[in-house]
């Protein structure tokens, strides 16, 4: 079968690889119809997330059809359409039962303290092949796979694999409540999805910060207030827009590949910190293999975190979902301490949120499709990766149509992502029963 395969830093290829087989009673084989490229995949190729093995299939976002099930999978049959949550969890341990699926005790072969397991990631993340392929082996399929109603097509479902659950989780981490002013740092797919999630969770105002013009436009299409960090100092802008107070809640949707502003007042203000950021970049990406302007690691790894802390109101909350790998050692801890900030972070507990999000989409309350700005066939996956890496105009989120017929939603295809608002008529707080039960994110 065809798959996107990691060979080294700056080196991914479209390879022919063997089809996966059932290895455990709780496995399923899923025939992928639609996959997607994520900002997380870029960290592996730029060198800001270490530990990938040569030959690993990439990708952790997919919609597909169950092809085969192991004898332990009692709730699904071949032919069922499913969305695949990015992280893998056993469903049995105390962490899974409490909703912390990303901290499962059993899914990682390295043991209970070895960390989150996800598809197409480093060996430390379980060493699982990914979903940018024609078929994938899904461990703990009886827990992970979420069935899709016929009314939710691939275009509506593909962003429920990772993007919307992570954005929802980020908004929960940030403790968004009714009327809060929320700043979202980063207008990639996660930041974009966080707009609708923050709004449904009750946000009063939403301010989005990025330096890429068409991504800011996509945020404005959703009626977020936008700040271009190459035109304004984003901390000053957010403080000014909030009457000198700052944002009650901040979501960091950037992570380790944060970039310095190229020009404008924020670039001037940061000039004296150039050496500090160079040092952080060397720490975050000790090895790298850029190809001209492609696969270049972020040149200011702590900058999104620094801005988040500075633009937060006193006693505010920061929810960090942008990824920071273990080698990153810099955070503006003292500034956060002095403002009595609450800091929450981590890998999304996808399985906790995906079923509710499927219901919201099926009910017409949430429409993820405008965020899919490109829909390409697997044969064009490598070019799509490069365009997404360079944040080229129009390449905010790429869905990969893996199975031709099965993939492209009727009437969508190339026209995906024309930019309509993504909350279909829902304003105001909507809490699920699960949420009302406790404050665990
Ligand atoms: N926690 C989780 O479970 C989880 C899940 C999925 C993705 N992620 C992470 O979320 C992050 C965003 O993912 P994505 O797919 O949206 O990626 P992306 O790379 O498309 O988005 C990052 C955005 O941040 C912007 N940016 C860069 N420097 C900035 C700065 N200094 N200030 C403000 N914005 C800046 C970029 O222009 C880009 O639009 C990544 O780190 C990804 O790994 C985390
Ligand atoms: Zn992803
Ligand atoms: Zn578990």
TrEMBL record:
Residues 412-431 have a biased composition (Low complexity). It is an enzyme of class 1 (oxidoreductase). GO terms for molecular function: oxidoreductase activity. It comes from Streptomyces cinereospinus. The keyword tRNA-binding does not apply. Its EC number is 1.1.1.-. Gene3D superfamilies: Medium-chain alcohol dehydrogenases, catalytic domain (3.90.180.10), NAD(P)-binding Rossmann-like Domain (3.40.50.720). It comes from the Bacteria. SUPFAM superfamilies: GroES-like, NAD(P)-binding Rossmann-fold domains. The keyword Nucleotidyltransferase does not apply. Residues 432-441 have a biased composition (Basic and acidic residues). Residues 8-400 form the Enoyl reductase (ER) domain. Residues 258-299, 412-441 are annotated as: Disordered. SMART domains: PKS_ER. InterPro entries: ADH-like_C, ADH-like_N, ADH_Zn_CS, ER, GroES-like_sf, NAD(P)-bd_dom_sf. Its cofactor is Zn(2+). Keywords: Metal-binding, Oxidoreductase, Zinc. Belongs to the zinc-containing alcohol dehydrogenase family. This is Zinc-dependent alcohol dehydrogenase.
């Amino acid at each position: 079968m065809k798959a996107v395969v990691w060979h080294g830093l700056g080196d991914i290829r479209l390879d022919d690889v063997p089809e996966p087989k059932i290895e455990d009673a709780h496995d399923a084989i899923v025939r992928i119809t639609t996959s997607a490229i994520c900002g997380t995949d870029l960290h592996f190729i730029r060198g800001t997330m270490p530990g990938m093995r040569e030959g690993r299939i990439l990708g952790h976002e997919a919609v597909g059809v169950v092809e085969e099930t192991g004898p332990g999978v009692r709730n699904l049959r071949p032919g069922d359409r499913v969305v695949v949550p990015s992280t893998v969890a056993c469903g049995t341990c105390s962490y899974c039962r409490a909703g912390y699926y990303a901290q499962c005790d059993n899914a990682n072969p390295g043991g209970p303290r070895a960390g989150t397991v996800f598809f197409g990631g480093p060996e430390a993340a379980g060493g699982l092949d990914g979903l940018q392929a024609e078929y994938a082996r899904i461990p703990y399929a009886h827990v992970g796979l979420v069935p899709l109603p016929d009314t939710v097509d691939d275009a509506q479902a593909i962003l429920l694999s990772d993007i919307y659950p992570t954005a929802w989780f980020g908004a929960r981490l940030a403790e968004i409540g009714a009327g809060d002013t929320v700043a979202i740092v980063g207008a990639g797919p996660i930041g974009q999805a966080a707009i609708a999630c923050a709004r449904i969770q009750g946000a009063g105002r939403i301010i989005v910060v990025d330096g890429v013009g068409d991504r800011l436009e996509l945020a404005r299409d959703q009626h977020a207030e936008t700040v271009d960090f190459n035109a304004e100092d984003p901390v000053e802008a957010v403080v000014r827009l909030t009457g000198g107070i700052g944002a009650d809640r901040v979501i960091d949707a950037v992570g380790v590949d944060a970039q310095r502003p190229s020009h404008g007042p924020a670039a001037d203000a940061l000039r004296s910190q150039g050496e500090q950021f160079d040092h952080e970049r060397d720490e975050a990406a000790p090895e790298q293999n850029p190809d001209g302007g492609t696969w270049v690691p972020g040149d200011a790894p702590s900058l999104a975190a620094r801005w988040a802390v500075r633009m937060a109101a006193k006693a505010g909350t920061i929810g960090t979902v942008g990824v920071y790998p273990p080698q990153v050692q810099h955070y503006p801890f003292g500034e956060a301490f002095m403002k009595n900030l609450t800091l929450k972070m981590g890998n999304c507990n996808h399985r906790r949120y995906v079923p509710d999000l499927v219901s919201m989409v099926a009910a017409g309350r949430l429409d993820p499709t405008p965020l899919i700005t490109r829909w390409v066939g697997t044969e064009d996956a490598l070019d799509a990766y490069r365009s997404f890496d360079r944040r080229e105009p129009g390449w905010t989120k790429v869905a990969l149509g893996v199975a031709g017929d099965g993939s492209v939603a009727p009437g969508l295809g190339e026209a995906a992502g024309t930019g309509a608002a993504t909350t279909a008529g829902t304003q105001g707080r909507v809490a699920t029963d699960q949420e009302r039960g406790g404050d665990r994110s």
